[in-house]
Q: What sequence folds into this?
């Protein structure tokens, strides 16, 4: 049934097109010598002007009225600078966008064909050309210099006292690792990865015993956070939209991004009047079937809450005591203490 | 070698220049070595691909615009790619996006555009009988054809076509276990692209050689139409950058099939640690974008060349700043090779490189701006005829402005951190590259259709096509800016998983509806195109009152293009509305000695040269009493 309707529709449309085609050819032959533009020239010229005006008004209106919808709330320090640069660029390009497009349409309208008129023979004007080479160059110089300064700041090495965390992307989720009380990450090796040891923790390294992982990424407000980014299988991209952070996760190569959060989750909830609000981590580099679902919640705490939260977390080894067998015998005792494994847990795992 | 062959060919066909070339169906229409036939083959294959690529975008726009609707009715077409609950399979979504991108960039806007217009216009506008090597030219099409067949067949295999996006970044594209499209589909993608590159190189060498060696008398580089300048530079860029993509693809093939580790290192996937170590996925990205960015201009420059010609003709004015136009095209061509890493600001590349590439990227905006201002000044003071070709050209300029300006956002590394891989980028490149170039292609078809097929396309249908497309494109791509500023990542099957991306269902719906209408409007074009080939009003010899040489050929130019001698060129191609002249155009083959009323003093000086030039031809003609061998003729003068 659907097929028949579709076929009928298509035949109808083609029929109409053929009719139009024929009619136009006939009218054309009767009414005017070829080459002389007729009535339609005026219509096209008018349509350009109308299109330009309606378009610009619509864009301005939408940009104004829906600002809160498309403007993503901001929660990082460097983000204020990149956003500022974004809006400076928007201001400059916005003005150019409107002026040039409107002029383009206006010229099309104003200089539409008129019988008996002759176009102006105006092949070049070096002064004009110089002006519009230099003007964009100046505008660009402003944008570039500001851009490079901001970029330099963002990409600068993180301060030594930065809070360091490690995030790893894999098909199709993220995992986070904290260095634990000793503040140093244990080594890892991709060959040690298995179903529980997602990070490939090297249990011969003392530093790994107190490393812990968490379901949600917690970070402190007002302190620089350095994220070491890894990937286990294919490319992913560590993307925190509210913090204006994005950096690819590359298998075989660690990447980094440092930033400072300026609003806790609670503060943002209050500001947006949305008790459900959560910061989110997304993946921004195509990585396969589940690319669109690589979500992880990010929680920003006040510094002291953050420290409290950290203190409550259990070391990975404590949660997976069977892996004690991978720890060299000589270090096992130290590992048990460092990971905070209790007697009962130890017995249960045996 | 090639020229020797051609000489023999033109010797044997001496007396046939006046009639149709004799041959059978196969040599005339299929394995033809005539540049005009090859151009049409490229064009029709390009139209076919554009419909496929466009239809794919409509299907994935359905998913994005109506995420809750079921598309059960596509089941007869897509089979198992529609899941049990009537949705598009997420992996198939990615396959569609990948194929759409690949098809549009390479098959439509590279082969379909350069293949059509470089082939068609270079010999006709420079005054040559054919391409330097007709045989290589034919090979170029047939490599493209085989490449097309392979790419097309990959859509129908069980594991699906390549799905890792058109940039095919490894490791995703290298590991069949990472997604099903990275299996046989990817192998076919690579095979197809390798052949495609061969096709592009064969074509490019031909375009370059022809432009350099086969210009007619008087056609100096400073008298070349801007179309030819654009095709020439495009071919040069292609020749320098496509081989790099080929090597990137070859290394990927090695990684996939022969256990090398160019791009692979420390990978654990599907419960297994792979043996590869020491490779770098970033290396691939550098190689890819070393082609990938110039590719943007390989796509765009021919479109800009076409619009220069169309806008000048239909404004009845010389193109403003001819030299500046050439200069900016050369500037763009050179700079296009040193900006590639602006696609890689946040890949973990050294941040210092990011600074360098920001600087170079924003510099390339200057020649682009010059071009826009020159187009606008060409319109200023004109006497504009809105042919359909003209409408599409003005549309191109508008898109080029709108999309070019957003380049200042994504080219600035600090701003790009947030915008990279969001819908903002999708909006940016669809306007500046996709739609602008697409409009350039359409402008070219409408403008040269009378030459290609000896008939006119229907103007009313053309107007409808234009206005639906123009409004449609803005409605599809402008809203994507807002969605991008709101942070929505691209290549997402759905946005329902994130609170941050849970808005804009209304805009997405609008975009999808506009996309369907825009696509529908292209069907009007397809009808107009094919129907006009057979039923269009017969075209006059120079329907637009244009100056260039192709309009001096007969209505149906035969093999060899001009029945008699090739016209000699005496002036630049943009003498429109010259003060004093009788008509508002003076063709390139009209000597200054015939236009005393409009000559400038310097041009009057040139008349003497013209006379001696004519003598030369007559003398040469006397030496060979038969018709002058044109090959010798052009070679003598270069
Ligand atoms: C009917 C017209 C078109 C529509 C509606 C359309 C729509 C889209 C959309 C929405 C995407 C992003 C999909 C995603 O990220 O999930 C996309 C990707 C893309 N489109 Fe188009 N497009 C159209 C025409 C074109 C043209 C003419 C070109 C030529 C340059 C083009 C080139 C691309 C490329 C290169 C991609 C990226 C593919 C990838 O991510 O691998 N498109 N298109
Ligand atoms: Cu992903
Ligand atoms: Cu680029």
A:
């Amino acid at each position: 049934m659907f097929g028949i309707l579709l076929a009928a529709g298509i035949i109808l449309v083609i029929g109409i097109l053929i009719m139009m085609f024929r009619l136009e050819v006939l009218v054309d032959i009767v009414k005017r010598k070829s080459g002389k533009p007729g009535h339609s020239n005026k219509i096209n010229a008018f349509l350009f002007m109308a299109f330009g005006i309606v378009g610009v008004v619509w864009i301005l209106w939408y940009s104004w009225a829906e600002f809160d919808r498309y403007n993503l709330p901001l929660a990082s320090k460097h983000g204020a600078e990149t956003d500022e640069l974004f809006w400076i660029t928007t201001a400059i390009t916005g003005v150019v966008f409107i002026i040039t497009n409107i002029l383009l349409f206006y010229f099309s309208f104003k200089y539409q064909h008129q019988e008996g008129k002759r176009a102006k023979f105006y092949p070049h004007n070096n002064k004009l050309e110089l002006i519009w080479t230099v003007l964009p160059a100046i505008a660009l110089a402003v944008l570039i210099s500001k851009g490079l300064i901001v970029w330099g700041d963002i990409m600068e090495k993180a301060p030594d006292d930065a809070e360091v965390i490690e995030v790893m992307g894999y098909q199709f989720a993220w995992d986070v690792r904290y260095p634990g009380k000793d503040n140093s990450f244990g080594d890892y090796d991709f060959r040690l990865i298995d179903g529980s040891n997602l990070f490939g923790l090297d249990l011969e390294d003392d530093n790994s015993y107190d490393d812990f992982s968490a379901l949600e990424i917690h970070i402190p407000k007002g302190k620089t956070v350095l994220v070491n980014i890894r990937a286990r299988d294919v490319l992913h991209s560590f993307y925190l939209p509210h913090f204006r952070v994005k950096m690819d996760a590359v298998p075989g190569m660690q990447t980094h991004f440092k930033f400072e959060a300026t609003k806790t989750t609670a503060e943002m909830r209050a500001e947006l009047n949305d008790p459900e609000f959560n910061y989110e981590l997304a993946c921004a580099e195509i990585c396969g079937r589940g690319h669109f679902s690589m979500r992880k919640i990010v929680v920003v705490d006040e510094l002291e809450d953050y420290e409290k939260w950290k203190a409550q977390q259990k070391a990975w080894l404590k949660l997976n005591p069977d892996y004690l067998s991978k720890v060299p015998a000589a270090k096992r005792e130290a590992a048990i203490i460092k990971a905070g494994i209790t007697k009962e847990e130890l017995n249960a795992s045996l | 070698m090639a020229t020797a062959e051609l000489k023999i060919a033109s010797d044997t066909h001496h007396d046939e220049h006046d009639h149709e070339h004799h041959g059978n169906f196969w040599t005339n229409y299929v394995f033809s070595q005539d540049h005009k036939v090859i151009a049409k083959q490229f064009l029709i294959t390009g139209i076919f691909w554009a419909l496929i690529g466009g239809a794919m975008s409509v299907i994935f726009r359905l998913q994005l615009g109506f995420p809750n609707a079921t598309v059960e009715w596509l089941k007869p077409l897509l089979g198992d790619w529609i899941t049990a609950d009537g949705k598009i399979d997420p992996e198939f979504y990615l396959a569609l996006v990948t194929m759409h991108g690949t098809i549009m960039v390479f098959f439509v806007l590279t082969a379909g555009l350069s293949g059509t217009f470089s082939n068609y216009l270079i010999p006709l506008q420079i005054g040559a009988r054919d391409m330097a090597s007709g045989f290589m030219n034919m090979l170029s099409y047939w490599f493209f054809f085989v490449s097309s067949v392979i790419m097309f067949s990959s859509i129908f295999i069980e594991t699906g076509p390549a799905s890792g996006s058109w940039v095919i970044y490894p490791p995703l594209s290298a590991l069949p276990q990472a997604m099903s499209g990275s299996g046989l589909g990817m192998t076919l993608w690579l095979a197809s692209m390798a052949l495609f590159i061969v096709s592009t190189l064969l074509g490019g060498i031909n375009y370059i050689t022809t432009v350099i060696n086969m210009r007619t008398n008087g056609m100096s580089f400073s008298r070349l139409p801007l179309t030819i300048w654009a095709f020439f530079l495009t071919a040069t860029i292609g020749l320098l950058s496509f081989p790099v993509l080929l090597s990137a693809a070859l290394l990927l093939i090695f990684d996939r099939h022969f256990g090398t580790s160019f791009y692979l290192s420390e990978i654990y996937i599907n419960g297994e640690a792979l043996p590869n170590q020491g490779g770098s996925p970033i290396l691939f990205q550098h190689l890819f974008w070393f082609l990938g960015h110039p590719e943007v201009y390989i796509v765009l420059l021919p479109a800009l060349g076409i619009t220069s010609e169309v806008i000048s003709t239909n404004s009845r004015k010389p193109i403003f700043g001819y030299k500046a136009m050439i200069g900016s095209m050369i500037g763009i061509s050179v700079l296009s090779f040193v900006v590639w890493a602006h696609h890689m600001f946040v890949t973990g590349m050294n941040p210092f490189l990011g600074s360098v590439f920001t600087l170079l990227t924003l510099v390339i905006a200057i020649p682009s701006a010059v071009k826009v201002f020159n187009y606008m000044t060409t319109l200023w003071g004109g006497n504009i005829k809105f042919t359909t070709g003209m409408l599409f050209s003005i549309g191109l300029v508008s898109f080029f402005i709108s999309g070019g300006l957003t380049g200042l956002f994504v080219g600035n590394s600090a701003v790009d951190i947030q915008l990279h891989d969001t819908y903002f980028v999708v909006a940016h490149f669809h306007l500046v590259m996709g739609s602008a170039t697409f409009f350039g292609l359409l402008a070219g078809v409408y403008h040269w259709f009378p030459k290609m097929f000896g008939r006119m396309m229907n103007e009313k249908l053309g107007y409808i096509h234009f206005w639906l497309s123009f409004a449609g494109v803005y409605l599809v791509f402008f809203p994507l800016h807002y969605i991008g500023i709101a942070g929505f990542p691209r290549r997402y099957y759905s946005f329902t998983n994130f609170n941050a991306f849970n808005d804009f269902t209304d805009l997405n719906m609008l975009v999808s509806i506009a996309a369907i209408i825009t696509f529908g409007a292209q069907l009007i074009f397809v009808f107009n195109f094919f129907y006009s080939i057979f039923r269009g009003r017969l075209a006059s010899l120079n329907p637009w009152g244009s100056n260039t040489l192709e309009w001096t050929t007969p209505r149906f130019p035969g093999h060899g293009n001009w029945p008699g001698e090739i016209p000699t060129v005496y002036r630049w191609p943009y003498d429109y509305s010259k003060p004093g002249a009788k008509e508002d155009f003076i063709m390139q083959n009209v000597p200054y000695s015939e236009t005393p009323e409009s000559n400038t003093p310097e041009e009057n000086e040139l008349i003497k040269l013209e006379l001696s030039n004519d003598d030369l031809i007559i003398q040469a003609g006397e030496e060979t009493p038969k018709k002058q061998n044109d090959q010798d003729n052009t070679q003598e003068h270069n």
About this structure: Residues 1-20, 615-638 of chain B have pLDDT under 50 and may be disordered. The pocket of copper (II) ion (ligand 2) is lined by residues A 236, 283, 285-287, 291, 294 (CB under 6 Å). The CA atoms of residues 169 and 393 of chain B lie 35 Å apart.
